[in-house]
Queue: 3 jobs
Job 1
Amino acid sequence: MRPFPAIISFSAVATSLAIGGWMGPARQGAATARWYRDLAKPDLTPPPYIFATIWPILGLGLAFYGYRAMTDTQSHLKRTRITLWALLTAGILAFPLVAFQWRRLQVATGLAAAMALLASGGVAVSCRRDIKATCALTPMVLWLGFATWLQFAIWQKNPDEN
């Protein structure tokens, strides 16, 4: 493993997850935690510990994907892969700000959908040349598809919150 791309990729994703976790509803004080707890949610909403468990795992996959993109010497899609990785990493950082600090459910739904599309694009541009990167990012695609549906359902169940 080449150290510099690994450090950049893993540090960027870890920072994004750490700051994103810090901006989550439980860390924003009692008013935000209460607001989020009291939102109407679909029956398939996972308990909070699932979110706390899944994101570090997904983050490892995203960091590995970023590393593979940065060290790609064969593909003419290297810049595209790095751009998709960087935008997805930024989206992970931005989502808690939009959803919990600003409490903009509609915008958070759009951001979740954009992240799902970015992750899908990352899989699409990597699938023929880099199966390891594709496998690392595929769980993110699946989770973000579910998260987009979940965020959309929360938005629709809480029309007065927009």
Job 2
Amino acid sequence: MNTFINIRYLGGTANGTSQYESTRWSESGQSENYTSNILNTATFTLGFEIK
């Protein structure tokens, strides 16, 4: 029997004003083209394999 642990993390940020007038990535309320986003996601997996 084999056991395993898997830990994964995905994260990033976006902050600033878009140079494209017609494209919005978020509704932040500060201005029409301004965006401020933060992404933090983590997973933890514990398992085993029977051969």
Job 3
Amino acid sequence: MPTRSSEQAARSHPGVQIAEAPLGSLLLQAVRAHAALAASLLADLGLVAPQEVVLLYLQDHGRTPQAELVRFLGRDRSTVTATLQAMQRAELIVRTPSQTDQRAMNVDLTGTGRALCPRIRTAWAELERLSFGRLSHPQREQLAAGLTAVRDAARARHEDAHHEDAHHEDKETRS
């Protein structure tokens, strides 16, 4: 049976630490800690990630094709479909067949989903305060610039690899 001190040690463990990737390790630790805090705040609203960003996207963009939500979330279609089905069962959204393409579904907010949006925005503001409130304004600007550079470098590499794979597949198809 775990003791209280062993449970505390498990909770306070810094997480993944790879000597060859100290910044990547730290970034992963920060992302996980941020996600755990977000999950706690979302649970208070009866939501799980990424339900809140779907609701905010629909509030900002109105009725949206489900395929657009797949692109926006950057997840596979089956995962997004499962998320949307759960949200529909919770009466946060409604999915209806497209008027122009019967194979496609459109997604829109219900009154319940729309009513949650201000509370979601408040939770995200609280998450921002809790996560970054100890940073000075210049530190926040430096962090934003650094994270933007990391994100852009990772995206560029991912896109290059994707184009190389597509080019390789295209060559194999022609052979």
